[in-house]
Write a structure and sequence with these properties.
Length: 553
């Protein structure tokens, strides 16, 4: 009887002692000692059994999904991460090593925070210096991040001397609320799968093509992916949700050779239903059904310029394939060379969101080639929420001379042989401010005197006045040698992929130029592009692929 009574007293004492050592700590973030406005305060609940890192809005069930909560299970020194994707979907992972991963340097410095004497420990994370101020006076451990969880109770975290998380309130509580405390989780996965799921939940992911072949065949197959120009163009309709202001969009392409050894012109483009006639009509019905551009050189160029009723394609990305990456890697063994398995191209295309948001659009990929194996490509569009409250910019496709339907009857853009060059008259429906021309240009003609290897000045005229001129030229092509296993090699030790070119390199994107055109009034305007195109030599000729879209407010 005495034993039971003694055990009961011990249990009560332990429970009281535990309750007395349970705390809720509120933290605020600051930068250069300026408190961040409108923040959701961090909350740490801690006792000798567990620590919970959360926030005020999460605890009050006011946080927007997805959100993340962290738990330290003291008994096993385990660090749990939990993401809530919705009211009914969650995912967790556990790490048994992260809490002891860092080493700390301790100093004799002290300072008082909220009446408690704190000691200083310093560590480094990804080349950032982290200072932790912790106290032993409360008999518990905890911290607002995973760092310093086993030092004591961290009351201030300082990164690089200017970014701080500082406790501004310590409250003794009876217990950690049930809806906050560590519990069993619906689903637990390994850390990599967890991080991937959390990362992808924070933005909109729209797959377009997955490992699709772009090659030259007599009769290409047709399924959910539309194929044109003997299979050298693939096209798919995708639905874009209504997007928030300030969003950013990125297009990503992964390319590898499936048999074609040469560097080829490629383009990712969009067909928007913003005019009575679109480029898709020509793809289906024949390119000769589209408006023709003529400038006196004797040829007709279908589907390359804007008219009152037709809109050329919006070029999202101009890219160039490497010399045979992946498919030919094993045939090109060179000492000290480890060839890449594929090329990943990624580009910001946020300026096109106004013609995407809430709509169905066609996104296509073109690689000019006459090879039966061709290329394999994967394309995806990701849209990321932004912090800006600015609305989307307006955009209008004006011209695109890249002959994406090359194998379907669309001619090479050789019209720069004439002084007139490329001239387009377009109409603005309203006054436009801060107008920019998103201009992509690459020169072609792959022999010694061809425009691929000869710098040529590009001049852009607006309403007869010179608006901008520059010479597009790339001198960094040698940086991409490891993407070009079967690039031709010359007697002087250079590879063909090393050579400087007219604004492109094998295995790279050609970035747009953003040319300021100022404010423009509603009505008709004319843009002219002039390039001194080189003369043909025998059956060889030069041409220029240029695309232009107006971006304005």
């Amino acid at each position: 009887m005495k034993y039971l009574f003694s055990l009961l007293l011990t249990t009560i004492f332990c429970l009281q002692s535990w309750a007395q050592n349970t705390y809720r700590i509120t933290y605020q973030r600051s930068y250069n000692d300026q408190v961040s406005p409108n923040q959701d305060p961090l909350l740490v609940y801690t006792n000798p059994e567990q620590t919970v890192i959360s926030s005020e809005k999460i605890v009050q069930s006011e946080a927007k999904y997805p959100y993340e909560t962290f738990y330290v299970e003291r008994r096993g020194n385990l660090y749990h991460r939990l993401t809530s994707f919705s009211a009914t979907k969650e995912l967790a992972t556990v790490d048994a090593t992260i809490l002891d991963r860092n080493t700390y340097t301790f100093s004799d410095e002290t300072k008082v925070i909220l009446g408690h004497t704190c000691k200083k420990a310093t560590t480094s994370v990804n080349s950032n210096t982290i200072e932790l101020w912790y106290t032993d006076e409360l008999g518990v451990k905890g911290a607002p991040t995973e760092l310093g969880q086993n030092l004591g109770l961290v009351l201030e975290y300082v990164r690089n001397g200017n970014t701080k998380i500082t406790a501004n309130k310590i409250e003794p509580i009876d217990h950690i609320p049930t809806h906050v405390a560590l519990r069993s989780f619906e689903k637990t996965v390994d850390a990599v799968a967890y991080q991937d799921a959390v990362w992808k939940s924070r933005f909109i992911h729209i797959p377009v093509f997955q490992d699709e072949q772009i090659n030259f065949v007599e009769t290409p197959k047709q399924d959910s992916v539309l194929r044109f120009a003997h299979g050298t163009v693939i096209l798919k309709k995708v639905k874009i949700p209504v997007l928030n202001k300030g969003s950013q969009a990125f297009i990503q392409l992964i390319e590898k050779s499936n048999g074609d050894a040469y560097d080829r012109t490629g383009s990712i483009f969009m067909i928007a239903d913003d005019q009575p006639q679109t480029f898709l009509d020509g793809m289906k019905n024949g390119m000769n059904t589209l408006p023709m551009y003529t400038n006196g050189d004797g040829d007709e160029y279908p589907g390359m310029v804007r008219t009152d009723s037709f809109s050329p394609v919006y070029e999202l990305m101009r890219f160039f394939t490497p010399f045979g990456v992946s498919h030919f890697n094993e045939r090109a063994n060179l000492m000290g060379k480890t060839w890449q398995d594929s090329v990943i191209y990624r580009q910001d295309v946020s300026e096109f969101l106004s013609v995407m948001s809430g709509k169905e659009v066609y996104i296509g990929t073109y690689i000019g080639n006459y090879d039966g194996g061709g290329h394999k490509v994967s394309v995806e569009l990701t849209i990321h929420p932004g912090y800006s409250k600015m609305g989307f910019q307006k955009v209008m496709s004006i011209f695109n001379s890249t002959n994406v339907m090359e194998m379907g009857g669309q001619t090479y853009a050789r019209f720069f042989s004439q002084e007139k060059g490329l001239e387009v008259t377009f109409e603005l429906p309203e006054d436009a401010k801060d107008v920019q021309l998103r201009y992509i240009t690459t020169g072609h003609g792959g022999w010694g005197n061809g425009d691929e290897f000869v710098p040529k000045e590009n001049s852009i005229f607006l309403n007869g006045e010179l608006a901008f001129k520059f010479t597009p030229w790339r001198t960094d092509c040698g940086s991409y040698r490891l993407y070009n296993p079967v690039s031709g090699n010359f007697q002087n030790g250079l590879s063909s992929s090393d050579l400087s070119r007219s604004n492109w390199c094998p295995a790279t994107i050609t970035n747009p130029n953003y040319i300021s055109l100022g404010d423009l009034k509603a009505g008709k305007h004319t843009i002219r592009v002039h390039i001194p195109q080189g003369e043909p030599e025998g059956s060889s000729f030069s041409f220029w692929n240029v695309s232009g879209a107006l971006i304005y407010n």
